[in-house]
């Protein structure tokens, strides 16, 4: 089998090497010219030839092209370099499913994608499944929990599909250390220290999940240089055995999808998992859950009710909780375990969390994908806004979606609150606003202002994945 792996920036090296280890003939196309010297050496060790697409004219027969879903080239763009080849196209997600086809059959596996709320959902699921020593890939790192204790396998790691396999391989090395195998302390069988796996992915899912959770498509942003959209990429979630999806997202983007096991959730009463009697609070929000005709992994169809108390200060947080509950019910996780896990969830440091500094309450909403809707929902969760500074800003990074400064500035112009813009994102918004607002270059100075003036602070900050101290 001849394979061409495109894009060495977003996991292509891992995929190319994995295929080469199976004695395949593998070519690599570094479309963004970001290949590091150490990765070039790694590819050379496994006889992976780095090529440009012009090289395809030298090939004949079959060629499998493995590409990221956000590739700014069409299949026709690639085929024109050698029209005589017999092409097969697979996404990075699809090849990861193939590479892992014999892995994880004895454990529950969850894949999480969506535009907003992915990481929060992963860590709610972690709390619920903590007794199973979960293996996790998230935007906060590759992690393994043993008896409730976190082990960081790799911190600076992206949520590309290739890093699902990287996370699994890292966990394998911990369970099967070469030195202990050589010393006879353990054998070289595929030992595991985890009893479940939770994988976050930015643009879809590989399909290895027993349940795939699609949190939402609150913004259907363009990808692949406007050739495709987020909803198209994330439709790969339907390759999972069961899909938990927001009802509004299903109706708007995927109404023609055929899948036998879909469980929906919504704040409204037209879904499989719904909610009522919500009592919002910045510490613990209480509400009643009702679920009807949930299709489960073991073939049951279940219905019931229970009460939840968890950290969910805004509507968007409650939606995330509903997605997590739909996922857990799909896996036949007892409701008592769901209730206990959600009660233990306190938010995520570096995402949504609350803290007290001196006399000031600080609410942090930190996310690489902040947009106008997210800003609006964050502001709406605060009751006494006159007591708050609202700081908005952040960094421009390497996510697929960029913030619409004009749209945000138009929205902020309608508000009559104490707004402070900060960072490079805040500076961009400031230039487009009509009303005067304060600006602080360093977001840390906003904390100082709030504390000094005995004000509370809502910080809505777009973080760059590369700046780990703000994650």
TrEMBL record:
<feature type="domain" description="Mur ligase central">
    <location>
        <begin position="112"/>
        <end position="327"/>
    </location>
</feature>
<dbReference type="GO" id="GO:0005524">
    <property type="term" value="F:ATP binding"/>
</dbReference>
<keyword id="KW-0547">Nucleotide-binding</keyword>
<dbReference type="InterPro" id="IPR013221">
    <property type="entry name" value="Mur_ligase_cen"/>
</dbReference>
<dbReference type="InterPro" id="IPR036565">
    <property type="entry name" value="Mur-like_cat_sf"/>
</dbReference>
<dbReference type="InterPro" id="IPR051046">
    <property type="entry name" value="MurCDEF_CellWall_CoF430Synth"/>
</dbReference>
<keyword id="KW-0067">ATP-binding</keyword>
<keyword id="KW-0436">Ligase</keyword>
<dbReference type="GO" id="GO:0016881">
    <property type="term" value="F:acid-amino acid ligase activity"/>
</dbReference>
<protein>
    <submittedName>
        <fullName>UDP-N-acetylmuramyl tripeptide synthetase (Mur ligase)</fullName>
    </submittedName>
</protein>
<dbReference type="Pfam" id="PF08245">
    <property type="entry name" value="Mur_ligase_M"/>
</dbReference>
């Amino acid at each position: 089998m001849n394979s061409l792996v495109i894009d060495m920036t977003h996991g292509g090296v891992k995929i190319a090497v994995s295929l080469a280890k199976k004695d395949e003939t593998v070519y690599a196309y570094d479309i963004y010219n970001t290949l590091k010297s150490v990765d070039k050496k790694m590819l050379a060790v496994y006889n992976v030839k780095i090529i440009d697409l012009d090289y395809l004219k030298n090939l004949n027969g079959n060629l499998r092209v493995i590409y990221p879903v956000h590739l700014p080239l069409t299949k026709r763009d690639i085929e024109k370099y050698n029209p005589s080849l017999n092409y097969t196209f697979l996404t990075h997600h699809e090849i990861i499913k193939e590479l892992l086809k014999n892995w994880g059959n004895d454990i529950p596996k969850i894949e999480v994608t969506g535009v907003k709320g992915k990481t929060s959902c992963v860590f709610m699921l972690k709390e619920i499944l903590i007794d199973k020593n979960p293996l996790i890939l998230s935007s906060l790192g590759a992690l393994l929990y043993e008896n409730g204790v976190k082990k960081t396998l790799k911190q600076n790691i992206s949520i590309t599909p290739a890093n699902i396999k990287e996370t699994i391989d890292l966990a394998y090395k911990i369970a099967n250390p070469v030195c202990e195998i050589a010393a006879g302390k353990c054998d070289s069988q595929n030992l595991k220290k985890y009893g479940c796996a939770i994988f976050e992915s930015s643009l879809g899912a590989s399909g290895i999940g027993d349940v795939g959770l699609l949190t939402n498509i609150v913004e259907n942003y363009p990808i692949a240089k406007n050739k495709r959209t987020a909803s198209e990429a994330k439709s790969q979630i339907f390759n999972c055995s069961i899909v938990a999806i927001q009802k509004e997202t299903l109706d708007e983007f995927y109404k023609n999808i055929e899948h036998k096991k879909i469980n929906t959730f919504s704040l409204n009463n037209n879904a499989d998992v719904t909610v009522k009697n919500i009592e919002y609070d910045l510490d613990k929000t209480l509400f009643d859950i009702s679920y009807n005709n949930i299709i489960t992994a073991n073939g049951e169809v279940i219905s019931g009710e229970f009460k939840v108390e968890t950290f969910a200060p805004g509507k968007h947080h409650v939606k995330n909780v509903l997605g997590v509950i739909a996922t857990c019910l799909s896996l036949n996780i007892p409701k008592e375990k769901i209730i206990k896990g959600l009660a233990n969830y306190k938010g995520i440091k570096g995402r949504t969390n609350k803290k007290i500094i001196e006399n000031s309450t600080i609410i942090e909403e930190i996310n690489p994908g902040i947009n106008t809707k997210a800003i609006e929902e964050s502001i709406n969760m605060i009751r006494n806004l006159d007591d708050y500074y609202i700081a908005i800003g952040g960094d421009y990074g390497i996510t697929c979606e960029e913030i619409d400064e004009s749209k945000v500035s138009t929205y902020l112009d309608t508000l009559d609150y104490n707004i402070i813009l900060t960072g490079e994102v805040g500076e961009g918004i400031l230039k487009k606003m009509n009303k005067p607002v304060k600006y602080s270059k360093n977001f840390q100075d906003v904390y100082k202002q709030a504390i000094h003036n005995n004000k509370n602070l809502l910080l809505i900050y777009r973080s760059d994945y590369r700046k780990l101290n703000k994650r």
